[in-house]
Amino acid sequence: MEFSHSIRCRDYLRLVSDFMDTYIVPRNALWHAEVAAGNFPVSFMADLKALAKSEGLWNLFLPSLKDDEPGQGLSTLDYAPLAEVMGRISWASEVFNCSAPDTGNMELLHMFATPKQREDWLMPLLEGEIRSAFAMSEPDVPSSDAKNIQTSIKRVGNEYLISGRKWFITNSAHPDCKLLIVMGKTDTDAPRHLQQSMVLVPIDTPGVEIKRNIPVLNHQTPEGHGEILFRNVKVPADNLLGAEGEGFKMAQARLGPGRIHHCMRSIGQAELALELMCDRAKERKTFGSYLSDRANVGDWVAHSRLEIEQARLLVLKAAWMIDTVGIEGARAEIAMIKALVPSMLCRVTDRAMQTFGAMGMCPDTPLAEIYTFARALRFADGPDEVHLRSIAKGEFKASSERFGASASYMTPPTTG
Fold first, then answer.
1. Cα separation, 130 vs 112, whole angstroms
2. In this structure, are residues 262 and 381 in contact, taking their beta carbons and an 8 Å threshold?
3. 3-class secondary-structure state, position 117
4. How far apart are CA 276 and CA 270, in angstroms?
5. Among 182, 92, 97, 162, which residue's Cα sits nearest to residue 131?
6. What pLDDT, on the 0 to 100 scale, is given for residue 316?
7. For the stretch 350-379, what's the b/e string if a residue is b when 16 or more beta carbons lie within 10 angstroms of its beta carbon?
8. DSSP H or E stretch at residue 316
């Protein structure tokens, strides 16, 4: 397993880091001020995106880009350190057209879109002209298992009729969101994993009702985590993505890269939290001593460094496996990082908040925002328990193949 940065990766890492330091980090306070004032998208986003695109820092995440598609087509492993740098600022990845959920949606369209769907939706997304959302989660079922989806998608002549309710649909409140990729059931009599399909629904289609932008831990993001009602929504049959019954398979294909991108960005957020913790500990005194001199604070810093490094190595292994054996071959590693990284980020950020004291809970630092994202990530793309169950099933299956082999390591008492 080779995790060292390629020459191409090092070049792009330098360029992205310089762009972040020069154009994005200095505008972070202004971004928050404009969002707080209700200005979204912020006034400078279009200019930054145009600049990033002109400098070749565009669509860095999609390895299978075609010659006529804009972007760099980096491998998953090469993209990992770039996503880590972007992750230090919550809105930075949008500047490079590398933000969720558009990345996953572009992956889906890239794999399954018809030529017309590619022209109508994929190319505008690749160009950064529009945004999109993926409508899967539902309020009444544990929809991390796509087989539980209840939304109905019925074929009626040359149209599909969609009825159902979705929620926590990220990006649905973004003014530039034009496309919803909706997952529902087209055949409830088919085998459970062949009942689901996906359809492309323009967000302004009659019957699409965005009921609210759901706050997460009382934090409301401007792009939204919408609750959406589909009330007898009609779309042409040509809006079907892939074939009927392929929705479950396509969802699995989409979630692989999406999960690893979240984890890559989380490593960058954890690094920022640790940096803030160290700086605060060296400048803050309690009872006559700097916090950096306190043994427990030193332990917090040391444990944070250990956990970040462990998590990064597992993320890089998963990225390397996606590139070498594909998403299916990397399924166990993807589940591992999804269960590991958000919890790690929660712990590191919690220690940083404790080091800052009350300031750590207010908007003067990014820690409260990072912690909110980290805690929410333990549900996004499936709760921890789903991934832990998957990992355990893999371990038990492997142990069945060698069942009894561990007996030779036992030292039972001898009988007289």
1. 19
2. yes
3. helix
4. 10
5. 97
6. 95
7. bbbbebbeeebeeeebbbbbbbbbbbbbbe
8. helix 295-329
284-291 LR contacts (CB < 8 Å, sep 24+): 284/355, 284/356, 284/357, 291/355
Q: Are strands 177-185 and 131-135 parallel, antiparallel or unpaired?
A: parallel
> How far is it, in rounded angstroms, from Cα 292 to Cα 241?
55
Please say if the pLDDT value at position 416 is more than 70.
Answer: no
Instruction: Dump the DSSP string for 178-213.
Output: EEEEEEEES-TTS-GGGSEEEEEEETTSTTEEEEEE
HEC sequence for 228-240: EEEEEEEEEHHHE
Q: What tens digit of pLDDT does each residue of 15-40 get? A: 999 999 999 999 999 999 999 999 99
CA–CA–CA angle 177, 183, 186 (5° rounding): 140
Contacts of 300 (CB under 8 A, 6+ apart): 277, 351, 354, 355
Q: Residue 390 half-sphere exposure, CB side, CA atoms within 13 Å?
A: 18
> Left if phi > 0, otherwise alpha if psi is -120 to 50, otherwise beta: which for 92?
alpha
Helix axis angle for 76-86 and 247-283, nearest 10°, is 50
Closest Cα partner for 96 from 47, 44, 57, 40? Answer: 57
**pLDDT per residue over 193-208, tens digit each?**
999 999 999 999 999 9
pTM, entire model? 0.93
Q: Which helix (H) or strand (E) holds 260?
A: helix 247-283
In this structure, are residues 63 and 323 in contact, taking their beta carbons and an 8 Å threshold? yes
